[in-house]
Amino acid sequence: MSNQLEVATLGAGCFWCVEAIFQDVIGVDRVVSGYSGGQIENPTYQAVCTGETGHAEVIQIHFAPSVVSFGDLLHIFWRTHDPTTLNRQGADTGTQYRSAIFYHDEQQQKDALASLAETEASDLWAAPIVTQIAPFTHFYPAEEYHQNYFKNNPNQSYCAMVINPKVRKFRAAFQDQLKQSQSAEESKL
Q: Which fold has domain 6-186?
């Protein structure tokens, strides 16, 4: 992996689901679950869950742009959650589950807007996309027990019933973008 890593900050519902998907992508060095887009410093999971802090559950993806581009990550982003539901992903509801792209620089902003326009022009989603595209300000890592949640808790009911089917669907659709080790792991799920 290249020493030159960039960071993407994306919200697509429950960070456990999003983390599990992007950890599989070739060129991704690490994924950290956390909170962004809110008004208070160092929020806790309990505070974010109230919907009153303004934060979204997000992931920060540390990736090698020489292997996977920000645009490639956005291509996956649009196809692995429903960006047409405001403040909701599946049964998870509230502003903390909003679809969001927090861009880190002008190029990411341009790429996000272009990717949004391309996705809206496609037949991928029938309803209008409501994804927030906003400048990145702060990221607060989630509590340690949220990190690598799916990997650490594959038999937990939410993981088995919600995350596992999502990860299986992702792996089937994006086989050419998976880390080599994932093909062996796929047979275990």
A: Peptide Methionine Sulfoxide Reductase; Chain A (3.30.1060)
